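User: Can you recover a sequence for this backbone? Please restate the input before giving your answer.

Assistant: Of course. Working from this structure:
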């Protein structure tokens, strides 16, 4: 491992960071979502939140509706679609993914 490597190798017993592969923009949006009150999340359990620029823009019953809204509102940019109550699963889109759709 050279001096240029910025991430330390995980040590035995370390808990891996499940969000390590996320880019900074999406990580910021996810951290914002995770900071929201549990009471808010409980009331909207199972729905899909559209998050961009540290703001929850709208919540939908389906991932498809959330995705359509985000594409229309934000266009070909990064945004987070997070299912409320499913914090271990992260759904988001990037410019690269949009080209493949």
């Amino acid at each position: 491992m050279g001096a240029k490597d910025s991430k330390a190798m995980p040590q035995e017993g370390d808990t891996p960071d499940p969000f390590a592969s996320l880019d900074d923009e999406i990580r910021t949006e996810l951290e914002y979502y995770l900071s929201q009150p549990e009471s808010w999340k409980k009331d909207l359990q199972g729905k899909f939140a559209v998050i961009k620029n540290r703001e929850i823009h709208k919540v939908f019953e389906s991932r498809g509706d959330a995705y359509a809204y985000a594409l229309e509102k934000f266009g070909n940019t990064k945004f987070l679609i997070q299912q409320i109550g499913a914090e271990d699963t992260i759904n988001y889109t990037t410019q690269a993914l949009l080209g493949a759709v």
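That completes the design. Residues 24-100 form one domain.
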